[in-house]
Write a structure and sequence with these properties.
The complex is a heterodimer of chains A (511) and B (213).
Chain A: H1 7-15, H2 19-54, H3 57-90, H4 96-109, E1 113-119, E2 125-130, E3 140-148, E4 154-162, H5 163-184, H6 186-234, H7 250-312, H8 318-349, E5 357-360, H9 361-371, E6 378-385, E7 391-394, H10 396-414, E8 419-427, E9 431-438, H11 445-448, H12 466-476, E10 480-485, E11 491-498
Parallel strand pairs in A: 6-8
Antiparallel strand pairs in A: 1-2, 1-4, 3-4, 5-7, 8-9, 9-11, 10-11
Chain B: H1 2-18, E1 23-24, E2 27-32, E3 35-41, H2 50-54, E4 59-70, E5 78-89, E6 94-101, E7 104-112, H3 115-123, E8 124-132, E9 140-149, H4 154-165, H5 180-187, E10 197-201, E11 205-206
Parallel strand pairs in B: 1-10
Antiparallel strand pairs in B: 2-3, 3-8, 4-5, 4-9, 5-6, 6-7, 9-10, 9-11
Helix pairs in contact in B: 4-5
The chains are: A alpha+beta (511), B alpha+beta (213).
Bound molecules: adenosine-5'-triphosphate and magnesium ion.
Chain lengths: 511, 213
């Protein structure tokens, strides 16, 4: 039992990348990854070398030795202070009264000495002096130095040591500890840098791949559409078309060329089908003409014999004579109609081959308009020519037949009003166009589809062959005929022919 | 610190797996409050050469992990961890020691004047709480110890991460700058078991050998 695929799955199947897309995306990923791989290797080297530079073991060693240097500095200071204190003690005067001034003088003499005091054996202060002025070296910490006096008691000195030593010591200790940590983790740090770099590269390659896929999709989707349309075409669907999109690249050009090609194939197929159909109908017309024409003469002869015998009668019956005269009229009229029909049928059946010669469509239309009043049908026939030549290959005699059929139809449609017929000649890049319009009632759309069929007519006296003949002749010229409406009401036929020479765009040829 | 305490068993297991051998050290056992207390003499872990290291004025960390294992077994019945931070104060010319273990998780501070005193303090691993004595039963047991000097601790890892995520910029005195690659690298930085550990074990003993208080 198979359930229908869920919408998401169906969507996935629809979005499954084509092989073309995949190969383009792959190419992009490769193009992104190859240099990235090289830079990954470089990055790992760089990380290793940078770490080695920043973490020179000698630097780490020196850093770690820094606190010991400060220790040495402190040691030296302590020794200096002890020495100075001993010197002070030696020079201490004997008389107690002189001790105070001596200490005061010592304070002024000895750098960094902040306080000096003589203590008795009991620990009482016998004399003291203190420097209250700010230390010239800035903030300081106390560094005590004691000297035992020979007569008992102690000399207690307090020296200043710069506080910034301690701050520096703390800072370099912290730095050394941090560096020691980094040193211990060096291999790991390098690995983590490479990992981070690889991760970034991977993300980068992923983005590049997705972007490439997205870009490729815009092109490949159109190629895929073309492939699908070609398949349709191969299966015989001539209505297929691809959307060329808005871009002006080769794929869009290909799509446009494809559409043109399909349109041309469709046209030529329609032409072939129509011509085959017409030639079938021509066969029918030939047989019908033959079958109808054959008995007509015997009928006519038989009736003439009947009339002759009656004329020879000695006592003709007047009533019968009247009847015979009426019947004769009917028979002759009907035979006349049938003969005309047979004539048109065989004319249709024996349509000659087209023998085109170089001509200018505009000149041809004007010529026809000049000659047409002879037909006595059109009250007004005006020609509007676009500037420039319209060189085409025409069989003038047959094309006159075409125009005559169209003009006659227009005149018949406009009855009882006199017809007003407009002939227009213009050109597009590849075709010359002739329009035949009238101001009659126009052709309803449901009739338009059938008017080119042989024997289709809405007229009691019509054969329905006029437009079929016209179309056959136009198609044999490699042209096309279409029916439409005129803007102000009325019917309009549009005939287009291929321009005959490639130098068609050149200046007008002398006529 | 709590995290470090939780990490201890893991480190220990790793240690125990490694501790196939190592030097034999003397052990003293005792019981207090129904619990087994051990005292190890780890003098061999702190040779004279370490004096320079300990006197360098930096913070040196000694971590001690002790496991109580059945003799010849690998499943620890009890674990104990202790972290000792030692720093020599070059002005005061003395060592400041910070000891952290389950008895004093916030640490207790000691001041030591001489190297021999410090060495004695570090080597004399006393008050190692190894769980209830009753748990020993009739089997024979052994202690295994693992001593590491300056292991890569979680704190160190954190500090190093911070350091590489905010590398000091080249300009002197400028504030450290935040770096994307550094931040990612710091996120991907893992610890390592690179620091060398010294392993020790004691003789085997049974519950009956533990003297009553
Ligand atoms: N200009 C026109 N205006 C309106 N209807 C038209 C016009 N041209 C042709 N038709 C319609 O198309 C039909 C077919 O025309 P076609 O010329 O083939 O045959 P027909 O004119 O009926 O007969 P025949 O040409 O033999 O006289 C006509 O019967 C008419 O209904
Ligand atoms: Mg007609």
């Amino acid at each position: 039992m198979s359930a229908p695929a869920p919408p998401s799955r169906r969507w996935l199947r629809g979005a499954r990348p084509s092989r073309f897309e995949l190969s383009i995306a792959l190419a992009l990923v490769l193009a992104a990854v190859l240099p990235l791989g090289a830079s990954l290797w470089l990055a790992s080297r760089l990380a290793a070398e940078n770490l080695a530079l920043g973490l020179d073991p000698r630097v780490v060693d020196r850093l770690e030795a820094t606190p010991a240097l400060y220790g040495d500095l402190f040691q030296a200071r302590k020794q200096l202070y002890a020495q100075q204190a001993r010197a002070l003690a030696q020079g201490l005067p004997r008389s107690p009264a002189a001790v105070g001034p001596y200490l005061q003088a010592a304070l002024e003499r000895t750098p960094r000495l902040r306080r000096a005091a003589v203590l008795t054996e009991a620990g009482e202060v016998a004399a003291e002096a203190e420097n209250t002025a700010p230390n010239p070296e800035g903030e300081w910490r106390e560094a005590p130095a004691r000297v035992a006096l020979p007569g008992g008691g102690t000399l207690e000195c307090v020296f200043a040591i710069e506080a910034h030593f301690f701050a520096e010591l703390d800072e370099s200790r912290e730095l050394a500890e941090a560096m020691a940590g980094v040193e211990a983790l060096r291999a790991e740090i390098q690995r983590s840098y490479v990992r981070a770099f690889a991760l970034l590269l991977f993300a980068w390659a992923l983005v590049a791949g997705l972007l490439g896929w997205w870009l490729a999709r815009r092109t490949t989707r159109r190629v895929t559409a073309l492939v699908r349309a070609t398949g349709e075409l191969a299966r015989g669907n001539l209505a297929v078309r691809v959307d060329p999109g808005r871009s002006a690249d080769e794929v869009a050009e290909l799509a446009r060329a494809f559409n043109t090609m399909v349109a041309e194939v469709r046209e030529s197929r329609d032409r072939i089908v129509y011509l085959e159909k017409i030639s079938g109908w021509q066969d029918v017309a030939r047989r019908l003409a033959h079958e109808i024409k054959n008995p007509l003469t015997p009928i006519q002869l038989a009736f003439q014999q009947l009339e002759a015998r009656h004329r020879l009668l000695a006592a003709p019956d007047p009533a019968f004579a009247r009847l015979l005269a009426e019947a004769g009229e009917i028979v002759r009229e009907e035979i006349g109609t049938l003969e005309r029909l047979v004539g048109e049928f065989s004319a249709f059946a024996k349509l000659p081959e087209v023998r085109p010669e170089p001509a200018d469509l505009g000149d041809f239309a004007e010529e026809y308009a000049r000659a047409s009043p002879a037909e006595g049908l059109a009250a007004g026939l005006e020609v509007v020519r676009a500037a420039g030549p319209c060189p085409v290959a025409l069989d003038r005699a047959l094309m006159r037949t075409v125009l005559a059929n169209l003009v006659r139809n227009a005149a018949e449609a406009s009855r009882p009003e006199p017809a007003r017929i407009h002939l227009g000649v213009s050109r597009t890049t590849a075709r010359a166009v002739l329009t035949v319009g009238d101001e009659g009632p126009g052709i309803p759309p449901e009739v338009r589809e059938r008017i080119f069929d042989p024997y289709f007519t809405t007229k009691s006296e019509g054969t329905g062959l006029g437009l079929a003949i016209a179309k056959k002749i136009v198609l044999q010229h490699g042209g096309e005929i279409e029916v439409g409406g005129r803007p102000g009401g009325g019917a309009q036929f549009t005939l287009s022919f291929p321009l005959s020479s490639p130098s068609a765009a050149g200046p007008a040829r002398p006529s | 610190m709590r995290r470090a305490a939780r990490l201890l068993p893991l480190l220990l297991l790793a240690g125990a797996a490694l501790a196939s051998d190592g030097a034999a050290v003397p052990v003293e056992l005792g019981s207090r409050g129904g619990r087994l207390w051990a005292r190890l003499d780890l003098r061999t872990a702190f040779p004279e050469e370490l004096r320079r290291t300990f006197a360098n004025g930096l913070t040196n960390v000694v971590s001690l992990h002790v496991a109580l294992l059945p003799e010849g077994g690998d499943e620890p019945a009890a674990l104990f961890g202790r972290v000792v931070e030692v720093r020599y104060d070059v002005w005061e010319e003395r060592w400041v020691v910070q000891v952290r273990d389950p008895q004093s998780p916030r640490g207790r501070r000691l001041v030591v004047r001489g190297w021999e005193e410090l060495r004695g303090l570090l080597a004399d691993a006393r008050d190692l709480d190894l769980g209830p004595v009753a748990a020993l039963g009739a089997g024979r047991w052994q202690l295994r110890a693992r001593v590491e000097l300056n292991p890569v601790s979680r704190e160190l890892l954190e500090r190093t991460r911070e350091y590489i995520a905010n590398p000091p910029s080249g300009v002197r005195g400028a504030t450290p700058s935040r770096s994307v690659l550094g931040a990612m690298a710091s996120y991907l930085l893992h610890g390592t078991e690179a620091s060398e550990a010294r392993l020790f074990h004691t003789r085997a003993f049974s519950g009956r050998e533990v003297p009553a208080p």
